[in-house]
Amino acid sequence: FLSPSLQAKMSRPVQARRLEGIDKNIWVEFVKLAATYSKVNLGQGFPDFPAPDFLTEALTRALGGGNHMLHQYTRAFGHPALVKVLAQFFEKLLGRDLDPMTNVMVTVGAYQALFCCFQALVDEGDEVIIIEPFFDCYEPMVKMAGGTPVFVPLRPNPPKDGKLMSSADWQLDPAELASKFSARTKAIVLNSPNNPLGKVFSREELGLIAELCVKHDVLCISDEVYEWLVYDGKQHIRIASLQGMWDRTVIVGSAGKTFSATGWKVGWVVGPDRLLQHLRTVHQNSVYHCATIAQEAVAQGFQRELMLYGKPESYFVQLPKELQQKRDWLVQSLDDLGMKPIIPEGTYFLVADISPFKSDVPEVPNSDEPYDYRFTKWMVKNKGLAAIPLSAFYSEAHKNNYTNFIRFCFAKEEATLKAANDILQKWKQDKTS
């Protein structure tokens, strides 16, 4: 038998300090709510339609094609076939020569790419500017690296003609942005097209950011996972292509968003070797390696798209056309109900103004829960429709200013969007009866 002193439970803290304050995650709570109550889930950002046939056929070929080495480790920093075709593709997009072995690294989804960026480039005491609203992992990842997030919001400027607002109407204040740069600023995180808003930053806006980065010698972590999902003839401009920016920018990309296969978890970073060499150090000492089979199939997908680049039959041309239609259907459905959607220029998402519905949602006594959280929970429980509160994409300092909005995902099958429309139509009838 152990003596009583050896049986005692540990009394000292077991949690690493870097995890303090970042343990809560909105997705845990809202995924559970959606699973429990929703008839239609427009909350999480993944398609419920199939990945393209050419991609799944490439995976089948890789699995059964007789090359047994595709079931083993490949090169740790990226399967040779994939980094080679990514380099060819980005040479075309950026207008510069790339070395597949030093300018491209494959990661376990864009999520791990971001983690590598923050761990490799941010030190204790460094400040990192984050544009709000922001994809929610940026803040905890900066903090885990020992950095300090500094937030600057996009501010809405509603059109005066009574038209629906666009994501382009949410803009940075140039003076406010400039005031956030200091001697402590190590990096700025740019997400264009932006999740959750769907904003596609213009050349002028990117030029302002680039000018400040060069002036203050600051890095840019450019999250471009929705680069192909841009609507209404808008153009996605890569900040790394602007003067002075290649040498200080890491581009983050995602096969999950590019090929509608989010569960494959294949992402990448593209950038100068002087930055990527440090990301490789983090990668080799964390996940080390990504699934070979998935990388091979994604490589074949990109080889197809390289041959069809700019042609009507290209998946990168067809997908945004299909998603723009889906966006327009959901905009119409929400507008009919009176929810005031903000028309996104890109991504899977649109944000809607829910301020006209305050009288419908009961107050919760002794609760400091924001209105958008209460509304979203009320909507999924009473209407069966799941969405995400927008204030979840803001810092504590600013979230109370943006509690009149929620985010929907429209990257769904027609049947799913029709079911959502049916819920919204019934809701409208109930309101008017």
Secondary structure layout:
Blueprint lengths: L3 H4 L18 H12 L2 E2 L11 H12 L15 H15 L9 E4 L1 H13 L5 E6 L5 H7 L3 E6 L1 E2 L13 E2 L2 H6 L5 E7 L11 H14 L2 E5 L25 E6 H4 L8 E4 L2 H12 L7 H16 L7 H23 L3 E2 L6 E5 L17 H12 L2 E2 L1 E2 L15 E5 L4 H19 L1
Parallel strand pairs: 1-13, 3-4, 3-7, 7-8, 8-9
Antiparallel strand pairs: 2-10, 5-6, 9-10, 11-12, 12-15, 14-15
Helix pairs in contact: 2-13, 3-11, 4-11, 5-6, 5-10, 12-14
What does this structure look like?
The protein has helices at about 5, 25-35, 55-65, 80-95, 110-120, 140-145, 175-180, 205-215, 255-260, 275-285, 290-305, 315-335, 370-380, 415-430; strands at about 40, 105, 125-130, 150-155, 155, 170, 185-190, 220-225, 250-255, 265-270, 340, 350-355, 385, 390, 405-410. It has a seven-stranded mixed β-sheet, sandwiched between helices. It has a four-stranded antiparallel β-sheet with strand order 11-12-15-14. By secondary structure, it is an alpha/beta fold. About 40% of the residues lie in helices and about 15% in strands. Strand 11 (about 340) and strand 12 form a beta hairpin. The chain has two domains: about 20-50 and about 315-430, Aspartate Aminotransferase, domain 1; about 55-310, Aspartate Aminotransferase, domain 2, CATH 3.40.640.10. It starts with a helix and ends with a helix. The mean pLDDT is about 95. The longest helix is centred in the C-terminal third of the chain and has 23 residues, at about 315-335. It contains 14 helices and 15 strands. It is globular and about 65 Å long.
